[in-house]
Amino acid sequence: MIYDKKIFWGWYIVAGAFFVMAANYGARYCFGVFVAPLSLEHGWSRSVISMAATINMLVYSVCAIFVGRMLDRIAPRWIMTAGAVIAAAGFILTGFANTPFALYLSYGFLVGVGASGMGIIACSSSIGKWFIKKRGIAIGIATMGISFGTMLLTPLAAYIDKYFSWRGGFFMLAIVVLVAGILISQALMRKTQPEAYGLLPDGEKMFLTSQPQQDLSANNQISSLTFFRDARFWTLAVCHGLIVMVVMSVFVHQVPYALDKGIDKIVAASSLSVVFLAGFFGQFFFGWLSDRLQDPKYAYFWGVIFLLGGMLFLFTADSVGHLYLFAILYGFGYGSLAPILPIIAAQRFGRRVLGAIYGLLTFFIGFGGSIGPVLGGLIYDRFGSYKYLWIINIIVLAATSLVILTLKKGEQYELSPHN
């Protein structure tokens, strides 16, 4: 591959992150398409099937701690390549799953491990080290890959499921993850941070008297207890965890909910694509907005408000038109989540420890997110409806939007080579 030396390498990192996240999240967020087919073929309840998504989220969260720490030491391409291989193996085995245990082991465990290596922790943390002034727009552009991949893969998975088989859908996802994950990461994600290569963040020029700065990656050894004693950490962990709980419950149960309303399978799956189409623009907008506000927490607040408005539409949705109105509003708000957390984490805690702090946050956030899919399944199995799930989601979003406004700035944890 030929690189233009006039282009700051950080933008290659942005491009690589865009396509890696497109493959990774596009594949993972297709799971809701397969809930009904799995239930129909095997006779499993939706709570049993949803448990696979819960396990996936839990495993993803645990692995995030290790991924975050490794990113402060080694080039992201090796983490992403390993993740692509493991995730692809998980998708292939999911296509052969004939028991709940096999589903939990393949999709829950293996895909969860692999997805963590290709996930937003690896991608956004890498970008955050290459940008300061343009961090918001850079992360916003990269996270647009999440929506881009889901818009492409969700209807494709639904088409394969409808006209071929759900097993073929999982095989297709495995190929996408393997090819994109390895090729893109090896080509574009091979550098750690600008100081290690005699560069400065944002592509700024060094003074003639300046010497290339020492790579500080290996010196980022701040104890996790330091972060645990910081109230800002828990505000982000709890609020974002609850929000992701809402998001994951919707992603897994939105398509089955639409099918229960008598909506065609491909149309129902396409409504999920509409969520990510709106999210595609939301990710750019909220990344751009965070660079222009005195504090990115206000961009975060408005993102949650859009999510709340979308949930109110879903609560009353009874037609394709209402479903798509929900998808547009909710999707635009969802677009705030991927870029805003690493932006706030870098601003509050410092970019040199971004991998570690983001990994820890994701660990706790993942526990919240893991509740969403199984909570939705249990509520549906108990009441035969998603009504009470949507009510819980509305209350959670309203509360967290207010708590976010209390988030203070405080000190950053920037280290010197002598720490």
Determine the N-to-C terminus distance.
Answer: 38 Å
Order of helices and strands: HHHHHHHHHHHHHHHH
Instruction: Assign the CATH architecture.
Output: Up-down Bundle
Number of strands: 0
- Helix vs. strand class: mainly alpha
Radius of gyration: 20 Å
Residue stretches low in confidence (pLDDT < 50, at least 5 long) are: 207-220, 415-419
- Characterize the biggest β-sheet: none
As a percent range, the share of helical residues equals over 70%
CATH superfamily: MFS general substrate transporter like domains
User: Would you state the CATH class?
Assistant: Mainly Alpha
Strand fraction: under 5%
User: What is the fold named in CATH at topology level?
Assistant: Growth Hormone, Chain: A
Number of domains: 1
| Helical stretch tally | 16
Shape: globular
The overall average pLDDT, rounded, is 83
Layout of secondary structure:
Layout: H1 9-28, H2 35-42, H3 46-71, H4 76-94, H5 100-117, H6 120-128, H7 135-163, H8 166-188, H9 224-228, H10 231-260, H11 265-290, H12 297-315, H13 320-334, H14 337-349, H15 354-383, H16 387-404
What does this molecule look like?
- The radius of gyration is 20 Å and the shape is globular.
- The protein has one domain: Growth Hormone, Chain: A (Up-down Bundle), CATH 1.20.1250.20.
- The chain has helices spanning 9-28, 35-42, 46-71, 76-94, 100-117, 120-128, 135-163, 166-188, 224-228, 231-260, 265-290, 297-315, 320-334, 337-349, 354-383, 387-404.
- It contains 16 helices and no strands.
- 74% of the residues lie in helices and 0% in strands.
- The protein is mainly α.
- It starts with 8 loop residues before the first helix and ends in a 15-residue tail after the last helix.
- Helix 3 (46-71) runs antiparallel to helix 15 (354-383), helix 7 (135-163) packs antiparallel against helix 8 (166-188) and helix 7 (135-163) packs antiparallel against helix 11 (265-290).
